[in-house]
Request: fold
Amino acid sequence: MEDATPAPSSIEFALTLFFAIVTAVAIGVQTRPLLGGTVTQDLTRMCLSGVAGGLIAWFLWRYRKGDYTPDR
Reply:
């Protein structure tokens, strides 16, 4: 019997993306004492972290869907 990975749902992707955004906000807030800066720089860090987190969530979701299997 093979171990089949369950098909990912849209809810799973939405939760992953939500946690990526929460992480991005946390990174933007927590790095301010280290890197200093203004609100604009904080927002820039949050946006860059959010985009990176969103891409990671998207690739993980596609991986779970099976888009990166050897037979493709």
The first helix runs from residue 10 to 30. Residues 20-65 form one domain.
